């Protein structure tokens, strides 16, 4: 595993260097334009950006909460089907022992 990490490390550095070099000119243009604005306008832009970030964070949390609920319901349904033996007709006893060893029941 360590050999794999040592092998991949230069590639990840190349990727981050390429991304940084690509974005550097755009970040410089934006910061120079931002520095030329008045203080009140800078504060207003930062407040608007903060609102968008907070709104996006709540949307992100909401999506993952819904995903977690869906996965919990699916997991509970599968567990109910599995523990009541409804899968015994699909999986013969040989496969049931494999599944039991996977889930450590």
The coarse overall form would be elongated
Low-confidence stretches: none
The SS-based structural class is mainly alpha
Mean pLDDT: 82
Number of helices: 3
Q: State Rg.
A: 26 Å
Report the major sheet. none
Can you count the beta strands?
A: 0
Order of helices and strands: HHH
How far apart are the first and last residues' alpha carbons, in Å? 31 Å
Helix content range of the residues, please? over 70%
Strand content bin: under 5%
How is this structure best summarized?
The protein has 105 residues and is an all-alpha fold. It contains 3 helices and no strands.
Task: Describe how the helices and strands are arranged.
Blueprint: H1 2-35, H2 39-83, H3 93-103
What does this structure look like?
The protein has 105 residues and is an all-alpha fold. Helix content is 86%, strand content 0%. The chain has 3 helices and no strands. The longest helix is centred in the middle third of the chain and has 45 residues, at 39-83.
List keywords for this structure.
105 residues; 86% helix
């Amino acid at each position: 595993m360590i050999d794999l990490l040592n092998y991949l490390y230069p590639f990840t550095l190349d990727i981050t260097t390429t991304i940084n070099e690509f974005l550097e000119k755009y970040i410089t243009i934006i910061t120079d334009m931002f520095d030329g604005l008045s203080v009140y306008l800078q504060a207003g832009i930062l407040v608007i950006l903060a609102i968008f970030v907070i709104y996006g964070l709540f949307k992100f949390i909401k999506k993952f909460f819904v995903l977690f609920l869906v996965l919990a319901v699916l997991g509970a349904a599968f567990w109910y089907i599995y523990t009541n033996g409804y899968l015994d007709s699909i999986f013969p006893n040989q496969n049931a022992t494999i599944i039991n060893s996977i889930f450590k029941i």
